[in-house]
From TrEMBL:
Name the UniProt record assigns to this protein: cysteine desulfurase
Originating organism: Dyadobacter linearis
Reactions catalysed, as given in the entry: (sulfur carrier)-H + L-cysteine = (sulfur carrier)-SH + L-alanine
Annotated TM spans: none
Enzyme Commission designation: 2.8.1.7
InterPro entries associated with the record: Aminotrans_V_dom, Aminotrans_V_PyrdxlP_BS, Cysteine_dSase, PyrdxlP-dep_Trfase, PyrdxlP-dep_Trfase_major, PyrdxlP-dep_Trfase_small
Keyword terms of this UniProt record: Iron, Iron-sulfur, Metal-binding, Pyridoxal phosphate, Transferase
Cofactors demanded by this protein: pyridoxal 5'-phosphate
Length: 384
């Protein structure tokens, strides 16, 4: 079996498993309890907070643990809209649904108006249009993702943060796909909110974080026992939080090596496809690039292969990839549909991790070539 869907989720790193084992057994206290067991658990959570903050160039007080990036995005957007009575939000049509649906709900309830920034033919933010939108609506909330989970495009968040500052706007970026892959120094970046999710960088599922720049406040959305400095009630997921911090530590420690490896796997897939004999291979967004795109993501449309079932045919051969994102079913990607030069065919997303191999890429391309071969034979038979 081959797992090539690491933008959907990743395998737990063995070092993460080692780090969480004590919290699965003896260190089971509630971090809010004041006795020895509680203190031990609290130290696990607070040490994780210091680790995450240190690795991102933030202060520990700026990191809030959540159940994942969906909740962190909801908390940042709803929390900021309510705390600052924001009435205008600028976003793009290729954001993750965790952002788009949250904003559309606020729009439906009459809280905000949404402007969608124009994208170029490859799905990159048109910064001139963004500036025009900001000129007309200063003090907006901007929500633009750092890297797109379906096509891999990387957005220049440094440039956007400068624009945001110029127009007194608040800038939230969904950084779920770049945390653990791209080096961050938040002390150097004028950004107000970012989010992360442990299972995207070899940590456990169901745990993430929200970074809130210390100059900001939010309106809490989960009320309860005052955990996370009153910003997010509920007993902390100690096991997950410890795993998240360890996963980020491992990702940052081995950053250059693992990113170079996935980058080579990506370029190897692209070069193998080029000589595979498969016709009509089209790359979506900046997928082909090694600079403007995530090093581990390749989004392809196969215009000469049958639409709607390539992901299924690969699955039958034991190869796990996805059509767009894990949350968008086959061929119905809102991201591909929003690209000015959208492909009419099903898109297939290959996404690598440090655990993939070149041999696996060979097998993937051989399987695709086999599918292509049988389609050609069937077509020729139909013509005879
Ligand atoms: N944002 C992006 C860009 C993602 O890729 C994902 C994961 O699919 C999410 C948000 C949601 O993350 P989570 O699974 O932690 O809720």
């Amino acid at each position: 079996k081959i797992y090539c869907d690491n933008a959907a989720t990743t395998a737990l790193d063995p070092e993460v498993i080692d780090a969480i084992i004590p919290y699965l057994s003896e260190d089971y206290g509630n971090p809010s309890s004041t006795h020895w067991a509680g203190r031990k658990a609290k130290e696990g959570v607070e040490s994780a907070r210091r680790t995450v903050a240190g690795l991102l160039g933030a202060n520990p007080g700026e990191i809030y643990f959540t159940s994942g990036a969906t909740e962190a995005n909801n908390l940042a957007l709803t929390g900021a809209i309510k705390a600052y009575e924001i009435s205008h939000v600028i976003t793009s049509r290729i954001e993750h649904k965790a952002v788009l649906q949250t904003l559309r709900q606020h729009e439906k309830e009459g809280d905000i108006e949404i402007s969608y920034v124009r994208l170029d033919e490859r799905g990159n933010v048109d910064t001139y249009h963004l500036e025009n939108l900001l000129r007309a609506n200063p003090q907006s909330l901007i929500s633009l993702m750092h890297a797109n989970n379906e096509i891999g495009n990387i957005t220049n968040i440094e440039a956007i943060s400068k624009l945001a500052k110029r127009y007194d706007a608040i800038f939230h970026s969904d950084t779920t796909q770049t945390i653990g892959k791209v080096v961050f120094d938040l002390s150097d970046l004028e950004i107000d909110f970012i989010v992360g999710s442990a299972h995207k960088f070899h940590g456990p599922k169901g745990v993430g974080f929200l970074y809130i720049n210390k100059k900001h406040k939010i309106a809490p959305q989960i009320h309860g026992g005052g955990q996370e400095k009153g910003q997010r009630g509920g007993t902390e997921n100690v096991i997950g939080i410890v795993g998240l911090a360890r996963a980020l530590e491992v990702a940052c420690k081995n950053h250059e090596e693992s990113q170079a490896k996935v980058g080579k796997l990506k370029q190897y897939l692209i070069s193998k496809l080029a000589i595979s004999g498969i016709e009509g291979v089209c790359y979506n967004g900046e997928s082909r690039s090694s600079e403007n795109s995530l090093p581990n993501v390749v989004s392809v449309s196969f215009t000469c292969l049958p639409g709607g079932n390539i992901v299924e045919l690969l699955d039958e051969a034991g190869i796990a990839v996805s059509g767009g994102s894990a949350c968008s079913s086959l061929g119905t990607s809102h991201v591909i549909a929003a690209l000015p030069c959208q492909s009419e065919k099903e898109n297939v997303r290959f996404s690598f991790s440090k655990f993939n191999t070149f041999k696996e890429v060979d097998q993937i391309v051989e399987t695709l070539a086999g599918i292509y071969g049988s389609v050609r034979v069937a077509r020729q038979g139909a013509l005879q």
